[in-house]
Amino acid sequence: MPEYGPYRHLDAVVADGLATLTIDRPETHNALNTAVMHDLGRAFAEIENDRSIDAVVIEGAGEEAFSAGADLAEYAGPSAEHDPTQRERQARFHEIFRAPHDCHAPVIAKIDGFCVGGGLVLALYCDLRVASEGSTFGLPTAAVGLLPTGGATRRLVDAVGESTAKELVFTAERIDADRAGEIGLLTDVVPDESLDERVAELVASMGEVGTEARERAKRAINAAVAAPDPATAREREASLWWEQFESTERRERVESFLDG
């Protein structure tokens, strides 16, 4: 089994094709400082080189937060004190936020508690977002004189639509899990005690499908979201479909299905 880490503020456990990444700063509600972001970037680079990984789960340590967002101490002071470092840092952070989206394996955000600011941005880049009923969501950046970053505005609009995205950002209000589920921010909302079970069910279900089919399907869906028009999305989908049609996996699974 390949070794992951060591990391400063991230625990990585790999077993039976599942990589579980736990943001480990519970004393700060798992705030995403530079060290955490670099840990996440390294972890996803290692996962991408390990094709035995069939699924990834990201969670927060402790019982209070997935992540409460950016560590605001790193954003204090005049802008002159941050340039050009801050510009480079934000560009790098965007790459790291995108890592779950670009990962070959499906990535599930397992949310229990606060999921706000940068924590919500990270969750938005995951393929699925499953939350406990007691969780809280928001993008309170405007309340501290900042804008959402890391591509958050586009991801939020894709998830909940333009008007609701503007409402969340303009008001900086926090919403509960039920409302987050209603507006499309979440894949599923479950009782607090059922969160582990629901995530495990999703991981097990994804493990039953064809590995290559699942990976190509994720690439096709990602391409569809990014495509400038339906025709471009269809061309990419068709290309990936033929790749899969030519695979041994397709032939074996179809034959197995027909043999009953």
Report what the structure shows.
With 260 residues, this protein is of the alpha/beta class. The protein has 10 helices and 10 strands. The protein has helices spanning 34-48, 85-102, 118-124, 152-160, 162-171, 177-182, 195-207, 211-226, 230-245, 248-259; strands spanning 10-15, 18-23, 55-60, 65-67, 107-111, 114-116, 128-132, 136-138, 175-176, 188-190. Strands 1-2-3-5-7-10 form a 6-stranded mixed β-sheet, with helices on both faces. Strand 1 (10-15) and strand 2 form a beta hairpin. Helix 4 (152-160) packs across helix 5 (162-171).
Keywords:
260 residues; alpha/beta; six-stranded mixed sheet
Sequence of secondary-structure elements? EEHEEHEEHEEHHEHEHHHH
Structural class: alpha/beta
First-residue to last-residue Cα separation: 35 Å
Largest sheet: 6 strands, mixed
Q: Find the count of extended strands (DSSP E, 2+ residues).
A: 10
